[in-house]
Amino acid sequence: MVSDFRRKKLMYMFKVLDKDGNGTIEKKDFEMSCCFGACRAHAAKQRELKKGDATYDECFDIVWDALQKVGDSNSDGQVSAEEWVTMWDTVSKNAADQDWLDKYCKFVFKMQDLNGDGFIDSDDFVAANIKSGASKKDAFAAFQKLSQGKSKISLTEFQELWYDFFISEDPNAPGNFIIGRPSFE
């Protein structure tokens, strides 16, 4: 059973990804969301990638396919809010389904590491989160809490923080700030 706190986090992220606001996440929503659309385009520009390059397209397709496999329980090509919450509850209990979580995490890390140095620093984090609607002030404050005062976050650290956000029931977990905002309102 998902706690009220965790449901609030999950539904916040669901709303971020449901770009057209129709109550489901579809491939087109996923393509338009910050970590997949704007950040992907920005990262591609920064790294001189173009559509068709494996790094540009392959990761997105792998993550979307995994989301459908794990989250789209009725196979209708979209993930409803209830399927989203159920998926995260299942992933937290089933190690076999955590492959999806790992793929998703690595993809978002890669897209937020805008300069491609293998770390997310405050500039990377703030730029990525401004594109998803966070204010610069909120994104910077969130990075400070997320990084616990460090200047950058490695992939290993990001993975731990990622699990905090999606799996943890602890309202004080630093991973709760991975979305670049101080709250889930």
Provide structural commentary.
The strands form two sheets. The chain has a two-stranded antiparallel sheet. The chain has a two-stranded antiparallel ribbon with strand order 3-4. With about 180 residues, the protein is mainly alpha-helical. The longest helix has 18 residues, at about 55-70. It starts with a helix and ends in an 18-residue tail after the last helix. The mean pLDDT is about 80. It has helices at about 5-15, 25-30, 40-45, 55-70, 80-95, 100-110, 120-130, 135-145, 155-165, and strands at about 25, 80, 120, 150-155. About 60% of the residues lie in helices and about 5% in strands. It is globular and about 45 Å long. It is built from nine helices and four strands.
How are the secondary structure elements laid out?
Layout lengths: L3 H14 L6 E3 H6 L5 H9 L7 H18 L6 E3 H13 L4 H15 L6 E3 H9 L5 H12 L4 E3 H13 L18
Antiparallel strand pairs: 1-2, 3-4
Helix pairs in contact: 1-5, 4-6, 6-9, 7-8
InterPro entries: EF-hand-dom_pair, EF_Hand_1_Ca_BS, EF_hand_dom
Protein name: Calexcitin-2-like
Pfam families: EF-hand_5 (PF13202), EF-hand_7 (PF13499)
